[in-house]
């Protein structure tokens, strides 16, 4: 593999490969890195070129242990891996190393207070009330797939739009703003992938998007944040004046310890719900379908035993693990597997590696819709476990319940391709050929 043309990335050595988004876009390559670290150095001090050093944590139980120790390992200083130059640029531009301050960037007690604002909305009991409307959206997308003449790119025709429309409905965002929302959510996590940026621009401009220039930042993240804040600032103002039964109204009128929620936190709340609630589910859905295509006996099991669908969804999430890592910062010396993580050290939890841990998952590189137990940690662990995990599971279950019975035949119609991102990633292209009832 050639070195990445973007500055600050290299394929020279295991540390550089660990953070290189081009390696992440080749699942076999990055899993070779993870496998080696789990076997030889599961608590590994990494010093990638152009990055601040950190401890790479690749074993399932270690990731869980650090996730539970939220007072010892905090979020607010460093949330994800980025080149040191990018972090410094962000600090100079905004006065903060974080563009947004979402739930994943906060520590308790503020994190706990802000999470509580929408917690009721995302509980299984509350989501049950939305299942009929989610199923209607799923059926629309299955019908869309059926209308395409037996061939499509599943990512760009189905997986991108289905969870986006679900999130928009829950937030209370009007359908006419769909393309704008798609562009913002895609470019947040795919900013360094010219294909993803060009695709989103092409969709939103009616087919005139162009490929970003190699070697340049594909997206102006500051401008993107301004677009988010401008749009959701208007939503907040509207919901204060015209409250409705939606999540936007809850966020807009939220109070923290008797005081109105800070505007920046409100805006950041919208960003995390809109982006993470869309992109991660899209990735798990398309990645799950790819595995059903590659393992036709597993697809047949779902046809024969629909009751396996929830287990299948859990296996799809384990397999794809859309959020590849999160960072923590150590607040006091901590011993782990004979290594001392010092106060102030960065720690990176590699969830995708944890979800292939041979000590936890029998035959972890086998896709198995009947896998039980399935202790996948794709949603994180501890107080920062994903707020929308029940929604993601519901969306995926409903879509595959609608799609699988109608599939008479399905196969690849070309090579799949993954987003080049070391943080949140998944398939960006899944060409398929199929016959539906």
Automatic annotation (TrEMBL):
It comes from the Bacteria. The keyword Heme applies. The keyword NAD does not apply. Keywords: Heme, Iron, Metal-binding, Monooxygenase, Oxidoreductase. InterPro entries: Cyt_P450, Cyt_P450_B, Cyt_P450_CS, Cyt_P450_sf. Coiled coil: none annotated. SUPFAM superfamilies: Cytochrome P450. One of its GO terms (molecular function) is iron ion binding. Transmembrane segments: none annotated. One of its GO terms (biological process) is cholesterol catabolic process. Belongs to the cytochrome P450 family. Cytochromes P450 are a group of heme-thiolate monooxygenases. They oxidize a variety of structurally unrelated compounds, including steroids, fatty acids, and xenobiotics. This is Cytochrome P450. It comes from Pacificimonas flava. The lineage of its organism: Bacteria, Pseudomonadati, Pseudomonadota, Alphaproteobacteria, Sphingomonadales.
């Amino acid at each position: 593999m050639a070195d990445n043309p973007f500055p600050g990335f290299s394929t020279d050595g295991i540390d550089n490969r660990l953070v290189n988004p081009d390696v992440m876009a080749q699942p076999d390559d990055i899993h070779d890195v993870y496998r080696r670290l789990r076997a030889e150095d599961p608590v590994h001090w990494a010093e990638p070129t152009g990055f601040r050093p950190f401890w790479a944590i690749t074993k399932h139980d270690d990731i869980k242990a650090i996730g539970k120790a939220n007072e010892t390992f905090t979020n607010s200083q460093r949330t994800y891996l980025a080149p040191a130059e990018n972090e410094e640029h962000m600090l100079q531009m905004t006065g903060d190393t974080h563009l947004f301050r979402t739930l994943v960037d906060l520590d308790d007690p503020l994190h706990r207070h802000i999470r509580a604002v929408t917690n009721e909305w995302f509980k299984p009991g509350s989501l049950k009330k939305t299942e009929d409307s989610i199923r209607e959206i799923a059926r629309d997308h299955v019908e869309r797939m059926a209308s395409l003449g037996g061939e499509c790119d599943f990512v760009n025709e189905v997986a991108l739009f289905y969870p986006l429309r679900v999130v928009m409905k829950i937030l209370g965002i009007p359908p006419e703003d769909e393309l704008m929302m798609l562009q913002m959510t895609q470019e947040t996590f795919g900013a360094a992938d010219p294909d993803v940026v060009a695709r989103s621009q092409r969709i939103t401009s009616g087919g005139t998007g162009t490929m970003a220039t190699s070697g340049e930042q594909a997206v102006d993240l500051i401008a993107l944040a301004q677009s988010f804040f401008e749009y959701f600032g208007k939503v907040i103002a509207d919901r204060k004046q015209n409250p409705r039964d939606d999540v936007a109204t809850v966020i807009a009128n939220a109070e923290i310890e008797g005081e109105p929620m800070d505007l920046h936190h409100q805006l950041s709340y919208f960003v995390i719900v809109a982006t993470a609630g869309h992109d991660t589910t899209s990735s798990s859905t398309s990645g799950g379908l790819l595995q059903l295509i590659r393992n036709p006996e597993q697809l047949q099991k779902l046809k024969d035993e629909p009751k396996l669908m929830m287990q299948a969804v859990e296996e799809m999430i384990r397999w794809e693990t859309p959020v590849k890592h999160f960072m923590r910062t150590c607040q006091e010396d901590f011993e782990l597997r004979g290594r001392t993580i010092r106060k102030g050290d960065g720690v990176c939890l590699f969830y995708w590696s944890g979800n292939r841990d041979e000590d936890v998952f029998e035959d972890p590189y086998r896709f198995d819709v009947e896998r039980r137990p399935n202790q996948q940690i794709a949603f994180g662990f501890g107080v920062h476990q994903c707020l929308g995990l029940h929604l993601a599971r519901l969306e995926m279950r409903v879509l595959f319940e609608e799609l699988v019975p109608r599939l008479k035949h399905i196969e690849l119609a070309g090579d799949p391709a993954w987003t080049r991102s070391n943080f949140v990633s998944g398939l960006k292209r899944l060409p398929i050929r199929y016959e539906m009832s």
